[in-house]
Design brief:
Length: 82
């Protein structure tokens, strides 16, 4: 699954620099995650780094973007090959 940022986001800016795929960007009101770039840090780290640093715990898995580990690894390979 890709991750998503909920409206509980306080725009603290700590998640964006932690994303190895540059999937996080500042949206109109809160930060957003591009699901096409989010691999939940598969291929880079054991745990999603944005979730690790988020002080308000507002980065859950996106239930509309169900992906297994193999799919996330394939997405990682495509992103890093580009």
């Amino acid at each position: 699954m890709a991750l998503m940022i909920t409206d509980e986001c306080i725009n603290c800016d700590v998640c964006e620099p932690e994303c190895p795929n540059s999937a996080i960007s500042e949206g109109e009101e809160i930060y957003e995650i591009d699901p096409n770039l989010c691999t939940e840090c598969v291929g880079h780290y054991d745990e999603p780094q944005c979730q690790q640093v988020c002080p308000v715990d507002c980065i859950p898995k996106d239930p509309n973007r169900v992906e297994n580990h193999d799919q996330l690894m394939e997405k990682y390979r495509i992103i890093t090959a580009a």
